[in-house]
Amino acid sequence: MSERPSDELDAIEARLAAARAAHAPVRVAGSALASGSRFAVEIVAGAVVGGGLGWLLDGWLHSGPWLALLGLLLGLAAGFMNLMRAVNAEQRLVDLQPVPPSVADDKED
What we know:
mainly alpha
């Protein structure tokens, strides 16, 4: 004998919920292009500001290009540190996303 209609309906609803969960879009904090542009600007800005401050200190202290180079490297390092922080934060968001259940394909080929 077959199952009761309510049991069949419950099974269909469960399969439908699993299928919806499997095809749900992953929530992303922002546009990838916007995030990439922002971090590119931060890296360049850090290098320019660090190099500029080093150049000003070189002019004031008459120390040659050494402080400008040091400021440039520190600015680049700061920009890349910001990039790594953002990548780690995005990875934590992705890790929190639930893994969708697999749905068996009942089509007969």
